Automatic annotation (TrEMBL):
BP term (GO), one: monoatomic ion transmembrane transport
Compositionally skewed regions (Basic and acidic residues) per UniProt: 146-156
Keyword Transmembrane: yes
InterPro entries found in the cross-reference section: K_chnl_dom
Record keywords, A-Z: Ion channel, Ion transport, Membrane, Transmembrane, Transmembrane helix, Transport
Residue numbers spanned by region Disordered: 145-164
Transmembrane segments: 16-36, 57-76, 123-141
Domain Potassium channel residues, every copy: 63-141
Protein name: Potassium channel family protein
Organism: Streptomyces flavotricini
Phylogenetic classification of the source organism: Bacteria, Bacillati, Actinomycetota, Actinomycetes, Kitasatosporales
Amino acid sequence: MVLLVVAYYLLPMDSAFTATTVLALVGGITAVVVLLSWQIYRITLSPRPGLKAMETMAITVPLFVLLFAAACFLMEHSSSGSFSEPLSRTDALYFSMTVFSTVGFGDVTARSEPARVLTTGQITLNLLLLGVAARLLANAVKRGRQRLDRPARPDGSDGPPRTP
């Protein structure tokens, strides 16, 4: 998580918000979904599924928030006035985090239509991440714990005994 934040502050972000930026954001979100799917599978095999699920969230959520923070930062720097105030990297991260947490203090707001579309997209994906992903993680932990509680078969393999 710390490495992701450090990367966010160190990566050069001096390009304009273009169709390429949108494709990079979509690619980043796709990468988050793939990472989350792979981690859900790994949770079911882990000797500590609950801990693995917390690790998954500790990587997935910051990556997701940082993707949107980078998009907000680039949008504001490409089209000044997209937000109610100029956004530094910290401001963009702050805005993205308040949107993710559904707190929405109102001190920074999306003003332009593209900024509002970006924010609406983040809100929609936040709900999916918080609802669907949380449910999938909980089920993966449950399956992982059930796998650990199951006695091994006489042949040494894991799983239910096979019938002839």
